[in-house]
Amino acid sequence: MAEKAVQGAQVVSRVARLLRIVGRVPETGVALADIVDAAGLTRPTVYRLLNSLAAEGLLDHNAETNTWHLGPELYVMGAVAAGRYAIEDLARPSLQRLADETGESAFLSIRRGDETVCLVRVEGSFPVRSFVLHEGVRFPLGVASAGLAIMAFLPEEEVERLLDDGGARVSRFGAAHSAENIRANLEATRRAGYTVNPGLILEGSWGMGAAVFDANGNPAWALSLTGIEQRFRPNRQEFLGKLLLEEAHKITQQLKERRR
């Protein structure tokens, strides 16, 4: 019985991994070969699991492009769960104010495990934009302004666990994401209250972020702004950071009031 339980847990873990991989590229879907590479599983295993998920409506296969997409059953589940977990309604006014006052694109991201997931994007009026962030994109904590803003306010032991990734961040995102560099950015974030990402993911594409805390005081979400480097010069960072902190604080307070 114990062996069956372990095997069952392994299947659940693999299914969750595949769903996350497919969900990373909602616009175009993901090809089978790319899913196999990202999952670290054999092609027959991935193919069997994908087809089983499609049969349950959790995934959808586009025969014309031969790509896999999140399925209609996930949409239904998400709609049902939204009332309990979503803060989009609380965050949208803040995102709109940030976009209107700065001209930059504003985002809401949520922490999911050791990653952040972008939930909402509101476009600013400035005509030149950065497209590093979009709804559904995932980054490890410590990568991108949202992940840095959240990670900065986690317990130290959890920060060290996240940094001990065997070089995965450096391998995927470059030397600027070494543990030493991330620690320095986290310390700067704690001092200022907001984080600055100086084009670490894509050269010339800058971002700033501020954490939003849940009713228990845990950093669970983040607001962020992205744009080109010229729009994030040092003399403007204080203005942008102040706006981010103000809006993040408003949402945090609303979440506390909801709980009362």
Automatic annotation (TrEMBL):
PROSITE patterns xrefs: HTH_ICLR, ICLR_ED
Annotated ranges, domain IclR-ED: 73-257
GO MF terms, alphabetically ordered: DNA binding; DNA-binding transcription factor activity
Keywords in alphabetical order: DNA-binding, Transcription, Transcription regulation
Location of the HTH iclR-type domain: 9-72
Keyword flag Isomerase: no
GO biological process: negative regulation of DNA-templated transcription
InterPro entries: GAF-like_dom_sf, HTH_MetabolicPath_Reg, Tscrpt_reg_IclR_C, Tscrpt_reg_IclR_N, WH-like_DNA-bd_sf, WH_DNA-bd_sf
The protein's name: IclR family transcriptional regulator
Species assigned in the record: Arthrobacter crystallopoietes BAB-32
